[in-house]
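Continuing the series of single-chain predictions for the mutant panel. This is the parent chain; the variants come on the following pages.
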Amino acid sequence: MTLLNILLQQQPGGGGMQTLIFFLLIIIVFYFFMIRPQMRKAKLERTFREKVQKGDKIVTIGGIHGKIVDVDTTTFLIEVDNNVKLRVEKSAIAVDATKTLSGQK
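Parent structure:
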């Protein structure tokens, strides 16, 4: 007999409680290994976007490099070349290039 058959044949009175505990443990593991780190990452990204200010060099999620010229409530105006400006959503900012590029040689 396989292990599954043996487990299915054994049905003591406490089987429902074991199943409930097993599902609770799965939920706890999902929370600590998936949900909580994702919430922490989202919070860090939100605070990063709030701290970005005029004059910072950034990279968008699409890979566009530019310097912030103007900050609105939900958008940034970035200058990508001489007299070439783009308006992007704050959520499209991926990296602060001022810090990453200055650290490289």
